[in-house]
């Protein structure tokens, strides 16, 4: 089994009623900008400090692997073979890697982050127009993770939009939607090429993963996160330890670090290179690979000095696809399926409507004693 690393029991200092979500919608941005704020409200305070023994839990020696996208797509046969090998090793050992030379213009990456800032700078009333009511609403913004069920509030505002196979997007601020459409198109192209390489690294044909999971009609989501300065960053979290649904998530940020990934039971600070994508594997790649490639557990820590913005674009199967381990991997390796099938839409709804807790949702489809 993969190392699960340190865990934290997180609870409200005082329970927030689940039947009053409207009262929870004041943004973290507005709270953080309150005059003279020096303490966080008790509902954001973890009773067990997530940063206890932080020095002992941080791995300062390891660095996440790097994949050169240009070698994967335009390299010689030998270079491409090596890139596929590196990609597979990164998925197996880390579930996280940097992608460089990916071809997405740096100017577009900078502009989309500025657009994200512009959205979060809208008034509370303007953002309320896009609040959404259900976890599968195509446009939804809010705070924490799921304020109606979270047992601790997280120091984070978010915007989540379904952008493929149908493109939805907020109408404000002006020009943001057009930028997002181009950005999502470019990141989807990068993701699909990475998935072809991953499919080959598993010993399959390049197109097998896409065909089996119907990625051509797969769901792509635009998730923008805002983590304002926190007056007591040692007492709160931006996002708790969790893995992502889907296959791959591409992430960029505004130069402010705060992402930590779990590796061999410790946390590794991720310091992204300029004009690179941070990529992590999701639960459904773990299922498809029958556990060979593990979805990565990661979290967002806070600072009291600057606002961190991150933009994630996860890609998954089509919503109606029942995701199971690839038959070829089971038959060729004479292994039993380690996961039961579940429709991607049902998995997504279950994860998004539950409290975020490591791999708790993936564990529901894991076959006991399968390894």
UniProtKB/TrEMBL annotation:
Gene3D superfamilies: B-lactam Antibiotic, Isopenicillin N Synthase, Chain. Keywords: Iron, Metal-binding, Oxidoreductase, Vitamin C. Pfam families: 2OG-FeII_Oxy (PF03171), DIOX_N (PF14226). One of its GO terms (molecular function) is oxidoreductase activity. It comes from the Eukaryota. Residues 217-317 form the Fe2OG dioxygenase domain. PANTHER family: OXOGLUTARATE/IRON-DEPENDENT DIOXYGENASE (PTHR47991). Belongs to the iron/ascorbate-dependent oxidoreductase family. This is Fe2OG dioxygenase domain-containing protein. It comes from Prunus dulcis (Almond).
